[in-house]
């Protein structure tokens, strides 16, 4: 069962960027309270009101248009992930969001199913794992735009034969907090193409929810920088190709879900 638990943890790492926490998650796979905190953080993020009416988006003090559906989809994914990160960094579930026994049962059911059936490779993973991840994590968290877009940035990275040398140079410019992204321009200056060059994608944005449930301010990054830096982090932690394989599998699962829905 241990190897299948690790498979789920790798999938979670791919979805949430838990590269630095993957070892901790894997080691804690048998620790029910920790996993319960993860599910509680996910549920709290699902409950965020990210409607256009509840969001204030500005860049350099100016309002940002909400007309671009892809931009808004990626932004919502980033906000929901940011909320999960903050809850896990807090190290505890707040009193107004009690531990969900139902979510804990779902996790136990999934691990029992994974432990008794199916191959270990993501391309042939048991349906119940794919079904759980798609319908219980990706779709409720509105992560599909992110899952769909990340392969485009993988392709942009691999379009340069010397991409590894470029990544190494970018990493060398950093400190303990990581390299300077310069609102994504760092990747463009290194020679990587603009995937989304519209101003809302390459500007630092500040988002606040009118109900005061979340705020996010960018100083050095942008959506373009965030998406490129996802692959930079995967390169740094050695999971670059495995994560691409998982994303391909997840996109195939999303395609199958859409086909089933008609």
Count of strand segments: 4
Reading the helices and strands in chain order gives HHHEEHHHHHHHEEHH
Describe the sheet with the most strands.
4 strands, antiparallel
Average pLDDT number:
77
Keywords: Signal
Signal peptide: 1-28
In short:
The chain is globular.
Structural commentary:
By secondary structure, this protein is mainly alpha-helical. The chain has one domain. The chain is built from twelve helices and four strands. It has helices spanning 2-16, 22-27, 32-46, 69-90, 101-114, 127-138, 144-158, 163-172, 185-189, 199-202, 223-237, 240-260; strands at 55-59, 62-63, 206-209, 215-217. Strand 3 (206-209) and strand 4 form a beta hairpin. The longest helix has 22 residues, at 69-90. The chain is globular and about 40 Å long.
What's the topology here?
Elements: H1 2-16, H2 22-27, H3 32-46, E1 55-59, E2 62-63, H4 69-90, H5 101-114, H6 127-138, H7 144-158, H8 163-172, H9 185-189, H10 199-202, E3 206-209, E4 215-217, H11 223-237, H12 240-260
Antiparallel strand pairs: 1-2, 1-3, 3-4
Output the keywords.
mainly alpha; four-stranded antiparallel beta sheet; disordered N terminus
């Amino acid at each position: 069962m241990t190897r299948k638990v690790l498979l789920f943890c790798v999938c979670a790492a791919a979805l949430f960027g838990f590269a630095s926490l993957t070892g901790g998650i894997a080691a804690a796979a048998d620790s029910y309270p920790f996993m319960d905190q993860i599910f509680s953080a996910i549920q709290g993020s699902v409950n965020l009101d990210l409607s256009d009416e509840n969001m204030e988006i500005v860049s350099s003090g100016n309002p940002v248009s909400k007309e671009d559906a892809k931009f808004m989809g990626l932004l919502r994914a980033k906000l929901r992930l940011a909320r999960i990160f903050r809850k896990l960094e807090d190290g505890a579930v707040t009193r107004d969001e009690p531990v969900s026994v139902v979510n804990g049962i779902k996790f136990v059911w999934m691990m029992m199913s994974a432990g008794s059936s199916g191959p270990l490779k993501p391309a042939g993973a048991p349906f119940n794992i794919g079904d759980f991840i798609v319908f219980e994590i990706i779709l409720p968290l509105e992560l599909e735009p992110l899952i769909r877009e990340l392969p485009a940035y993988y392709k942009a990275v691999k379009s340069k034969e010397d991409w590894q040398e470029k990544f190494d140079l970018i990493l060398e410019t950093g400190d303990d907090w990581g390299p300077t992204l310069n609102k994504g321009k760092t990747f463009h200056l290194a020679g990587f193409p603009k995937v989304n060059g519209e101003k809302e994608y390459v500007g630092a944005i500040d988002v606040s929810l009118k109900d005061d449930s979340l705020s996010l301010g960018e100083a050095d990054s942008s959506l373009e920088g965030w998406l490129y830096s996802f692959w930079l982090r995967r390169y740094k932690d050695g999971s670059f190709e495995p994560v691409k394989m998982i994303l391909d599998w997840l996109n195939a699962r999303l395609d199958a879900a859409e086909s089933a829905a008609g």
